[in-house]
């Protein structure tokens, strides 16, 4: 049996009132008598009436819906961001609609087009690894659609952006490996078009320089699909393992890269950290139960989602054009565990 929600029209018919009178009564209008208001509210509670936020939004020229574009929701980082988005959106009575790109530029373009067709009020976006052009976003932004970028941001579009301190997180991770005595530290990262790739690479390079370590470009491996292709990660790792002077530590730059490299090292029977240490960006809730526990740089994903949503709703509800935008950078947290500690296994 199909469920049908009770509408204002149903209440009006049951109480022999006009739809306009019921609507005004539910809003507490002074045009309606107190007795009628009580009657309408009592019946509405009895029938479990819930206002339709989309219908309300359309009457006001708004859909009360926010679109969120991420690479994949099974990534712990993005799932935590979405929780943060929803925590703010629901309080403000906005619906959240999510689309996954799976690191595909074409899927990203299609997702944005679909959102635009649904007349959403604004977008929260983290770019796909394949995205090199941002014309699809720029067109909508120029037409007045509010949007906020997070984590993987589009620096060509003038709007609010929310990131974590990628440079410092990478610097601290690399410095930790250096302080543990590792001499040849490799870096496996995402596509070189992404903002996070550039910022984390900068932190890695700066730490090496500050501690007098030579930079070997052969120790830097890019995975253009952001870790979505296991074959790509495996090839990058194999290149490092085949070097005449094999790395004794690896710093990985994303959630999927970190867990995949760890798993591949284990499958090759390489002892962690005795043969190769590993530390990486990941918000995996399982990092501390890996064998050995995985050292990580975790991002404040939930807070990033909350902040991005607050900024977006502020844009949506602003009565005047917004011309001043913020880039908010939140702190990461370094978690040192056995996968990167020298001589503890």
UniProtKB/TrEMBL annotation:
Transmembrane segments: none annotated. Residues 6-60 form the HTH lacI-type domain. GO terms for molecular function: DNA binding. Coiled coil: none annotated. Keywords: DNA-binding, Transcription, Transcription regulation. PANTHER family: HTH-TYPE TRANSCRIPTIONAL REGULATOR GALS (PTHR30146:SF109), LACI-RELATED TRANSCRIPTIONAL REPRESSOR (PTHR30146). This is LacI family DNA-binding transcriptional regulator. It comes from Danxiaibacter flavus. The lineage of its organism: Bacteria, Pseudomonadati, Bacteroidota, Chitinophagia, Chitinophagales.
């Amino acid at each position: 049996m199909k469920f049908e929600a009770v509408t204002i029209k149903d209440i009006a018919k049951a109480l022999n009132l006009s739809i306009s009178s019921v609507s005004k009564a539910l809003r507490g209008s002074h045009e309606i008598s107190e007795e009628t208001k009580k009657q309408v509210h009592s019946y509405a509670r009895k029938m479990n009436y819930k206002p339709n936020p989309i219908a309300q939004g359309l009457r006001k020229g708004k859909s009360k819906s926010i679109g969120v574009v991420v690479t994949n929701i099974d990534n712990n980082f993005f799932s935590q961001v979405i929780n943060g988005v929803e925590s703010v959106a629901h309080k403000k009575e906005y619906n959240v609609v999510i689309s996954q790109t799976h690191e595909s530029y074409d899927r990203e373009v299609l997702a944005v087009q679909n959102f635009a067709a649904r007349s959403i009020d604004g977008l929260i976006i983290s770019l796909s690894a394949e995205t090199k052009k941002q014309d699809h976003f720029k067109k909508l932004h120029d037409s007045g659609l509010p949007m906020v970028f997070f984590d993987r941001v589009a620096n060509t579009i003038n709007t609010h952006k929310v990131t974590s301190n990628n440079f410092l997180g990478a610097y601290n991770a690399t410095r930790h490996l250096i302080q543990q005595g590792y001499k040849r530290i490799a870096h496996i990262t995402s596509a070189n078009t992404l903002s996070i790739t550039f910022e984390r690479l900068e932190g890695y390079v700066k730490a090496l320089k500050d501690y007098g370590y030579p930079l070997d470009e052969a120790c830097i491996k890019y995975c253009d699909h952001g870790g979505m292709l296991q074959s790509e990660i495996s090839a990058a790792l194999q290149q490092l393992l085949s070097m005449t002077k094999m790395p004794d530590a690896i710093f990985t730059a994303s959630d999927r890269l970190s867990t995949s490299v760890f798993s591949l090292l284990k499958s090759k029977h390489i002892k962690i950290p005795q043969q190769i240490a590993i530390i990486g960006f990941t918000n995996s809730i399982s990092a501390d139960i890996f064998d050995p526990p995985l050292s990580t740089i975790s991002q404040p994903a939930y807070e990033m989602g909350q902040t991005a949503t607050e900024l977006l709703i502020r844009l949506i509800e602003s009565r005047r054009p917004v011309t001043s935008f913020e880039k908010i950078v939140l702190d990461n947290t370094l978690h040192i565990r056995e996968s990167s500690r020298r001589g503890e296994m």
